[in-house]
Amino acid sequence: MDMEQKGKPEAKLRTAVLIILAIVVFQIIMDWSDFKAGFLGAFLH
After folding, report:
1. Any residues with CB less than 8 A from the CB of 35 and at least 6 apart, and which?
2. What DSSP string describes 1-45?
3. What is the reported pLDDT for 18?
4. What is the pLDDT of residue 2?
5. Dist CA 44 CA 36 (whole Å)
6. 1-45 pLDDT per residue, tens
7. How many Cα atoms occupy the beta-carbon half-sphere of 16 within 13 Å?
8. pLDDT attached to residue 28
9. Judging by beta carbons within 10 Å of its beta carbon (0-12, 13-18, 19+), is residue 11 exposed, middle or buried?
10. Number of C-beta neighbours around residue 20 at 10 A
C-alpha cells in the first residue's frame, strides 16, 4: 500500500494538500489572537 513509491497522481495530490494545510495552519498561528478571540466569541455568545 505504498503509493508514494510509484509516483501516482494521488501522492502528488496528497503532497499538494499537505502544503495547503501547512499554509493554513501557519496563517492560523500568525493570527492566533484574532482567531482565538473570534472562536471563543462564537461559542460564548
Report:
1. 28
2. ---GGGT-HHHHHHHHHHHHHHHHHHHHHHTHHHHHHHHHHHHH-
3. 96
4. 61
5. 12
6. 565 566 688 889 999 999 999 999 988 888 877 777 777 788 876
7. 5
8. 80
9. middle
10. 10
